[in-house]
């Protein structure tokens, strides 16, 4: 988990979610709204794509499994100034723990329908 740059004053707060100097190109940003508690999204991994996630409202449980080592980690995102970087070959599932829950995901590569770089079978790796 990374602490993001966070600024607050009487007007509210501002979080610097991603900076190109630390991650390179940002190709796509998505906002995910979970309408109910215990809704799951993800359940896949990427071979090329890197993702950054932050929960800006509510609480989201993130389960990460490195498919090469089998190491599993679980995080609870509850603060907009805490973010996760999800590297390639890391299977990930997001689950809302309360409603509503709003998550922002930034990626370094756009989704391509013809070559989606999205793999659902955690037990089946193909060439790198």
Textual characterization of the structure:
The protein has one helix and eleven strands, in the order βββαββββββββ. It has 128 residues and is mainly beta. The model has no long low-confidence stretch (mean pLDDT 86). It is 3% helix and 49% strand. The protein has one domain (2-107): Sandwich (Jelly Rolls). The strands form three sheets. Strands 1-9-6-11-4 form a five-stranded antiparallel β-sheet, with no helix packed on it. It has a four-stranded antiparallel β-sheet with strand order 5-10-7-8, with no helix packed on it.
Structure in a nutshell:
The protein has 1 helix and 11 strands, in the order E-E-E-H-E-E-E-E-E-E-E-E.
The name of the CATH topology is Jelly Rolls
Average per-residue pLDDT, rounded, comes to: 86
Using the 3D structure, state the CATH architecture.
Sandwich
State the share of residues found in helices, binned by percent.
Answer: under 10%
Q: Write the CATH homologous superfamily.
A: Jelly Rolls
Low-confidence stretches: none
| Number of DSSP E strands | 11
N→C terminal distance: 26 Å
Helices and strands, in order, run as EEEHEEEEEEEE
Tag the structure with descriptive keywords.
128 residues; mainly beta; Jelly Rolls; five-stranded antiparallel beta sheet; four-stranded antiparallel beta sheet; 1 helix
Secondary-structure map:
Blueprint: E1 2-3, E2 5-9, E3 12-16, H1 20-23, E4 28-34, E5 40-44, E6 51-57, E7 60-66, E8 72-77, E9 82-86, E10 90-96, E11 101-107
Antiparallel strand pairs: 1-9, 2-3, 4-11, 5-10, 6-9, 6-11, 7-8, 7-10
